[in-house]
Specification:
The structure is a homodimer of 453-residue chains. The first copy, chain A, is α+β, with helices and mostly antiparallel strands and 453 residues long. Chain A is 43% helix and 19% strand. Chain A folds into 2 domains: 304 residues, Bira Bifunctional Protein, Domain 2 (BirA Bifunctional Protein, domain 2); 87 residues, Anticodon-binding domain (Rossmann fold). Chain A is built from 18 helices and 16 strands. Chain A has an 8-stranded mixed β-sheet. In chain A, strand 9 and strand 10 form a beta hairpin. Chain A starts with 14 loop residues before the first helix and ends with a helix. At the A-B interface, helix 1, strand 1, strand 2, strand 3 and helix 5 of A face helix 1, strand 1, strand 2, strand 3 and helix 5 of B.
Chain lengths: 453, 453
């Protein structure tokens, strides 16, 4: 019998981790709901054809496929297998796969339920996704995504609300140094027009997307490889070096990028910022970052990325507007805008900065030490009364050594124990011990309720 | 492009379903925590070798295996593939699989963390599991299990607490006609001894397990097929026909099944019932059901099953004591006792009996109708103030037709809308409309906070 182990890139979450995760998810959920987003959950398994072709060549290879049940070889593509063509063979061996993100299942849901959904449709979804990435530090094969999207509304009030949600969640979690970066894909389209490369927008955005990691020289190298000329690259470099206030940057765009797309992008940014400023933000800073590109192809308007300064971590949230979420499933022109919280990264930063409140951990509030059969009966009765008041309590199940019982209470971080022997049962004066200070006090049964609820 | 669809036996849960599911899961979770159980979550994927061989021949075939990523054919068992031996081939094509239940992952977790766990270890786990069963009414390929287990304690106080948990959860959910059936595997062992078939306990329990579906004749048939003699079957029939109060039944056992195992079983039942009676139960009835066998092989002591009368449904909960949960992973002799709530069946009964409270559904409490740019700004500001008080609110994102905005509010079951035009902005007297009654009232801005929080 071999020692059991976990698949690489997966994790168990014991009570202490669960408490922290629930704290983060709970905060996100509460804020989503305050803005009118409603919960959705989709199954872990999707039809393979729902998922393939949605994440690019590279993404497709990271999708976890489920082997067909039963005699799967009977219906397999024997030619592809004989030729050793794993990719082709896989489609005859698998009909289902694990979801790779929450966006594609959401799009599928919207299309399948189009006649029942009231538009604009605002949903949030907090569920794990699975990717066959090489596991590494902070990179897992199973991890949670926390998404909120509005579809069926072009109003930029949605963008402004999503910025407020970033701010409200991260402020609630007490994260300092939060910067919400804003840009607009239309400005990048305008840039492509300006340098005469409007047909090559993808290569342009993919290259600019690497700016924060590789700097101007890196982007230059990328663009060269992708066949951009020196003159074109020079213009991109001028664009990337624009500095100053939001107004300065927008003015530079307006003056230099003379295209309707760029103009529209500038207008949208002004409008979003205007709508955010109606309330202002609590703790986050809102910045216009012209170098922000976001890799994903489907964004067409505002794009967001959130960083936490001095965290040594990339972005902790992202999002943007897309014009055609559901087109791939046959329903054209459904515009929407969505955001996603990177809960795993947020958790790492909060752990490092010790931002989790001490009372996050769910634990028993009060344990009864077990002194024997008669005392146990007394305790079981009293425990039931406490639970009726919503107090978390347990009676140690055996009358073993005091030391063992105490070490259980300590290991579980239970703050108080009750010591009830025959004398206490008679007098009704119970001995309450604070395990933190070691202090013992006498309490009347009745006063327990108010002490703990 | 084909119309998207869901894999058979899987479901999406939109906002209304999510609210109901969260209501059930939340109730179960709250009660588990009141008794000192702490949350655990394990990954969806386990190593294939962790799962295989744990669920019997039949179960093994229902495990969903994940196709290895990358060029999986390169390392495949080409001989098995050529021979069309799907079963053998599958082990060379797959290293990971989806969890089939929560018990085996729990056992793996306990063994992997044995040095860090304080015993007795009380954990609960509420997560989906996956089985390649043929989908049908009430039978899904993805469904939730809600388990609570205590390991490392032989005390029967644990059994009594689990009975109280059944009662408390189902009473909280307002289910009527709940019967908690209790039996003990030791009595069934005693029965096997009595009829001289102690080496054939599995065949005996598997046959008796079918009693509630097929009756005495059915069990008789089963036992005949499994090679039991007429004399042996006659004794089993006498056992199955014992009626009367709990005391009557226990006396019959004591008088007839003269074995130490049976005696121990009777003692345990008396002790569990005694410990339950210290507090009594809220609404459920506790019954001794000698015909209760529970199919699973690993139970060795108390066994439970919970039914809801007149629901037309089988058991909604189950559980029992096992003496060796972790032996299969190399750690012998860890005794424990656990229960499981069948949340899907409970949900079906509650739907049929309309037991979900109306306010289960999470929805926006108050929507601002959008009359134009200036009004929107006013509303956005006020909405932010309301959200600061924890009130769920949204501003309709566009100043479209009133009818469209109202039908959105209705579809989302939003109970109130605020109508704020230029006049209201000036006077500060806002028009609040109750969408249920249609009634309109004037309210001051300040009084909104107390109205909705």
């Amino acid at each position: 019998m071999s020692k059991p182990s976990l698949p690489k890139g997966t994790r168990d979450f014991g009570p202490a981790d669960m408490a922290k995760r629930n704290y983060i998810f709970g905060t996100i959920k509460t804020v989503f709901e305050k803005y009118g987003f409603m919960p959705l959950e989709t199954p872990a398994m999707e039809s393979l054809q729902t998922l393939t072709g949605k994440y690019g060549e590279e993404g497709d290879q990271l999708i976890f496929k489920l082997l067909n049940n039963g005699d799967f070889l009977a219906k397999s593509d024997k030619e592809a297998i004989a030729l050793g063509d794993s990719k082709k063979a896989s489609f005859s061996l698998s009909k289902k796969a694990l979801r790779y993100d929450l966006t594609v299942p959401f799009a599928r849901f919207v299309v399948m339920n189009r006649s029942d959904i009231a538009m604009p449709f605002k949903r949030y979804q907090i569920q794990p996704v699975w990717r066959g990435d090489r596991p590494g530090k902070g990179r897992y094969q199973e991890f949670y995504q926390c998404d909120a999207d509005v579809v069926g509304s072009a109003s930029l009030l949605n963008e402004a609300d999503l910025v407020r949600i970033f701010d409200e969640v991260l402020t609630s979690l007490k994260l300092e140094g939060v910067v919400i970066k804003l840009n607009n894909r239309k400005i990048l389209s305008g840039l492509a027009q300006w340098i005469g490369k409007e047909d090559d927008l993808t290569n342009l955005t993919v290259s600019i997307d690497k700016f924060d990691k590789v700097g101007v020289e890196g982007v230059e190298k990328e663009l060269t490889i992708r066949g951009f000329t020196e003159l074109e690259i020079d213009k991109v470099k001028r664009f990337l070096s624009v500095t100053g206030s939001i107004e300065d940057k927008l003015n530079w765009i307006s003056e230099n990028l003379d295209s309707s797309e760029a103009k529209k992008g500038v207008e949208e940014i002004r409008e979003i910022i205007g709508k955010v400023n109606i309330t202002g933000l609590q703790a986050a800073a809102l910045e216009l970052d012209l170098t922000l590109a976001r890799g994903l192809n489907y964004y067409t308007g505002a794009i967001f990325e959130v960083i936490v300064k001095e965290s040594g971590m990339g972005s902790v949230c992202g999002g943007g507007r897309y014009d055609d979420l559901t087109g791939v499933f046959g329903w054209q022109g459904v515009s929407g805008v969505g955001i996603s919280f990177g809960a795993e990264r947020i958790m790492d930063i909060m752990n490092e900065r010790e931002l989790f409140p001490l009372d996050t951990a769910v634990t028993t509030q009060l344990m009864f030490v077990n002194f024997g059969a008669e005392e146990e009966n007394y305790c079981v009765k009293l425990a039931a009364e406490l639970r009726n008041q919503g107090i978390k309590t347990e009676v140690y199940p055996e009358s073993t050594k005091m030391k063992k019982q105490m070490s259980y209470a300590n290991a579980k971080n239970i703050p108080y124990v009750l010591l009830i022997g025959s004398q206490e049962m008679k007098s009704g004066e119970l001995t309450l011990k604070n395990l933190d200070s070691g202090e013992q006090t006498k309490v009347k049964k009745e006063s327990l309720f108010s002490l703990f609820s």
